[in-house]
Design a protein that fits this description.
Radius of gyration: 23 Å
Largest sheet: 7 strands, mixed
Helix content: 25-40%
Structural class: alpha/beta
Strand content: 15-25%
CATH architecture of the largest domain: Alpha-Beta Complex
Distance between the termini: 73 Å
Number of strands: 23
CATH class of the largest domain: Alpha Beta
Shape: globular
Strand order of the largest sheet: 20-17-21-16-15-22-23
CATH topology of the largest domain: DHBP synthase
Length: 571
């Protein structure tokens, strides 16, 4: 037996993954256990979960694959940012980079302190963008294809362009720091009053409300040539590092002062800035994809890296990139590098052992019926136990109720795919405001995703055949925006999840029963959490979130919790 533990930590989105003889036992972000969103610390709880899941002892782990090569980080910092060495704040930045690299390099001692003296694996440090690339290849079924990674920063680069053929990765080119598509988009995020490395999806959602009136300016800031992204450092000040970039005074003279965090809803100017930045990123990304299309005979494009969370751009790649199939890895952020690092190492140390197929993203922690029942009894709760739970849930959704679903193992990655989801009726235009306001407690401009029975997806979403992981957008078919207004964004697009019974029987049955009642094979799906918190993990998390929000019912098969309507006493 060969057991490989993949680990990502000390930057953001800490996670761990475990491969045993080429089979992925599981993977999980640490935030699900710590309840700290984007937790970057050492993933102690995630590792404990994986060992329990595989029934292994620490001594059974043969190799640890770490998602970064820390020895390169400090060297690259001085190479990438030489013009800023004497600028205000740079000493603090460089010391921070050095401290982070030292913490990464000490991962072996940190893990041994956690797992004990019997834990004595070989430690391997995997190139960051190669870890991203291998995660996409693994998720795509280990098929031959072109590969593109895009993020804020690895050790020395922000993108990789190449192909994987017969299990061998060939690189065509990389983008060198400080040029970075992720750096650019995080600067826009900061300018618009949101939190970088956290709220980029808000910029993407906001962009649909605006017009790209500043596109000429943003084209000067970000572009692409020869398969590489180019960021103009004269217009984007990176002196404080890749996660703290700000626009130059020349840019601010055109855009105006940044929006203060926590202020009122974004104005039209902010919407136009978001639209312009999104368009510029899309143009640069599409140029890189078209370059890659010319270099390879493969019809499959595999994508990973944090920028691959931009589902609007992924949809553009699918329509105009020239590839027959686009596969973005469902956990393309740094959490996914825990899987990619383990896969990369498996290819090196066990090339003769085939990798098992990754046919689901429900690979996080789960709880048995006995454990769920025990928690319910300890809390002195008395849920119902319907004979046909999926039909009951569908009827409640069709009746205008908001229903949370908690079942099976949690999803790996940032998208809730039916095991930790909140569901509602997409036919009701007001449902978007209801879920945003009394359940999620988040900004009103952010869209919700539709979950659709896969065999009927083309009826509602143009060109959609399969989109299992809610990471690409599609145009809503003409006339259907009036049928499913709560999940149709202002630009007539939707971030679609297609569902099959093989992938998720209960989830599929709920949508199917909803279709029988309403004639619509779509439900509104959003993650089971509130603003600022990770997706719920344990049964206790689920019950707490349910009772603390405006969710009307909680389905926890075979149990069903339903809140009784509040009635006013007669005076």
């Amino acid at each position: 037996m060969t057991a490989i533990l993949g680990v990502n930590c000390f930057k953001h989105d800490a996670a761990a993954a475990l491969l045993v003889d080429g089979v992925l036992v599981g993977a999980s972000e640490e935030e699900r256990f710590s309840r700290l969103k984007h937790d970057a610390g050492y993933p102690k709880n995630a590792i404990n979960f994986l060992l329990d899941q595989a029934a292994l002892k620490p001594s059974d782990i043969d190799h640890v694959a770490y998602y970064m090569q820390p020895s390169k980080i400090r060297k690259e910092t001085f190479r990438a940012f030489p013009g800023y060495l004497n600028r205000k704040g740079c000493v603090k930045f460089f010391l921070g980079q050095l401290g982070g690299a030292m913490k990464m390099a000490s991962i072996s001692s940190i893990m041994k302190d956690h797992l004990g003296d019997s834990f004595s694996p070989e430690f391997h440090f995997i190139d960051h963008h190669r870890a991203h690339a291998w995660s996409a290849w693994f998720g795509a079924g280990c098929r031959n294809g072109a590969v593109l990674t895009m993020d804020g920063a690895g050790e020395m680069h922000s993108s990789l362009v190449g192909e994987i053929t017969d299990g061998n990765l060939t690189e065509y080119t990389r983008t060198n720091l400080p040029s970075s598509p992720g750096l650019f988009y995080s600067a826009v995020t900061r300018y618009l009053g949101f939190t970088p490395d956290n709220d980029e999806y808000k910029v993407m959602g906001l962009s649909s409300y605006g017009e790209p009136v500043y596109i000429d300016l943003f084209r000067k800031i970000i572009s692409a040539e020869g398969g590489r992204f180019r960021v103009n450092s004269k217009l984007l000040d990176v002196s404080m590092g890749v996660h703290h970039a700000v626009f130059s005074p020349d840019v601010l003279s055109v855009l105006g002062e940044p929006r203060e965090p926590g202020t009122a809803e974004p104005e039209q100017r902010h919407q136009n800035i978001a639209a312009s930045a999104q368009r510029a990123l899309e143009e640069a990304g599409l140029a890189v994809v078209r370059y890659l299309r010319k270099q390879t005979d493969h019809d499959l494009l595999m994508i990973s890296g944090g920028v691959a969370l931009n589902c609007v751009m992924n949809g553009l790649f699918e329509r105009e990139g020239g590839f027959r199939e686009i596969y973005p890895f469902p956990a393309p952020n740094d959490a996914g590098t825990s899987v990619g690092a383990a896969v990369a190492l498996h290819r090196a140390v066990s090339p003769d052992i085939p990798l098992g197929k990754l046919d689901t993203m429900y690979i996080g922690s789960g709880f048995s019926l006995e454990e769920i029942t025990r928690d319910i009894q300890m809390a002195k709760l008395s849920p119902e136990k319907p004979g046909n739970l999926s039909s009951e849930v569908a009827e409640m959704i069709a009746g205008g109720m908001v229903v949370a679903v908690y079942q099976g193992r949690t999803e790996f990655g940032p998208r809730a795919l039916g095991n930790r989801s909140i569901l509602a009726d997409p036919r009701r235009a007001e449902m978007k405001d209801i879920v945003n306001g009394v359940v999620k407690h988040r900004e009103g401009f952010r869209p919700f995703a539709p979950a659709c029975i896969q065999e009927e997806s083309g009826k509602y979403f143009s060109g959609c055949v399969k989109s299992s992981h809610m990471i690409k957008t599609y145009d809503v078919v003409e006339g259907m925006a009036d049928v499913i207004p709560a999940v149709t964004h202002v630009d007539n697009t939707a971030r679609v999840q297609t569902v099959t019974r093989e992938e998720n029987p209960f989830y599929y049955d709920v949508i199917k029963e909803f279709s029988k009642i309403t004639g619509v094979s779509v439900v509104l799906n959003t993650s089971f959490n509130i603003r600022g918190e990770p997706i719920v993990n344990t049964p206790v998390d689920a019950v707490r979130c349910y009772y603390g929000t405006g969710i009307d019912a909680l389905a926890m098969p075979p149990y069903l919790f339903v809140k009784k309507p509040v009635t006013k006493e007669k005076s």
